[in-house]
Design a protein that fits this description.
Structural class: alpha+beta
Shape: elongated
Number of strands: 6
Number of helices: 4
Length: about 240
């Protein structure tokens, strides 16, 4: 027979219910503090990356078009409809589908959440070109107006997740690209009635702007794409993101 008289069993150590609840509470507090920041960081990274890829797609289409037609300065844009020009010089050089919409039925918002009603591109008819990535390029169904130097430019609104998907907010999923002879393809930093005037980083954020296009919570956010481009395709801490 096995003699167990020399062995003494010690009680097992375990967490009390109070200790478990306290631990779970601490984990919950830490998660509540860090997860939103992680999600926000991921969204910013994704937005900047997607915008950069879309910009590259448009830039490549312009270069290819110039090699087969002529440089942007020679494109026939005088008194032409923007959609007509886009269909001739850009659409054939990018894989996309096209449809016409009434952009006036779509609600877009500035960085502070105020509905945008002044931009011509979202007031009436527009052409929507959907890329393979799902990003949509939107151009106004109107006549292209030249600047003081006699040059004509194409303004393209970029909606990273499509006009049917929120937030439809400038600086979050909506941005602007400009194609002009003087500057080529740029994330737009133009101001109405101003022509081509280079902007410092501070000016992109704080203005001045004739039309309040600056990228802050009191501005309309039209220059936010230019700010991301200027910052090396990154969204910095002072960017109006919320």
């Amino acid at each position: 027979k096995l003699n167990l008289s020399g062995f003494q069993l010690s009680p097992k150590k375990a967490f009390t219910l109070a200790e478990v609840l306290i631990t779970l509470g601490i984990i919950g507090i830490v998660a509540a503090m860090t997860i939103p920041n992680l999600i926000s960081h991921y969204q910013k990274e994704s937005t900047a990356t997607q915008l950069k890829k879309t910009f590259a797609t448009v830039s490549l289409a312009v270069r290819t078009s110039e090699s087969e037609n002529e440089e942007v300065a020679g494109w026939d844009m005088s008194n032409k409809n923007t959609i007509e020009v886009f269909d001739k010089y850009l659409a054939p050089y990018m894989k996309c589908s096209k449809k016409l919409i009434n952009a006036g039925e779509i609600k877009y918002f500035s960085p502070n959440g105020k509905q945008e009603k002044g931009l011509a591109i979202i007031r009436g008819g527009a052409g929507v070109y959907t890329l393979l990535s799902g990003v949509q390029l939107i151009v106004n169904n109107g006549v292209i107006v030249g600047n003081n130097n006699g040059y004509y430019s194409i303004g393209i609104m970029v909606d990273l997740n499509g006009y049917n998907t929120k937030p439809n907010k400038f600086g979050r999923d909506a941005f602007f690209i400009s194609i002009a002879p003087e500057e080529g393809v740029k994330m737009s930093y133009r101001d109405d009635g101003e022509g081509i005037v280079q902007k410092t980083r501070k000016q992109l954020i704080d203005g001045p702007s004739n039309e309040n296009y600056q990228c802050n919570y009191s501005g309309r956010g039209i220059w936010c794409g230019a700010l991301i481009q200027r910052d090396g395709w990154k969204i910095s801490d002072d960017y109006p993101w919320k």
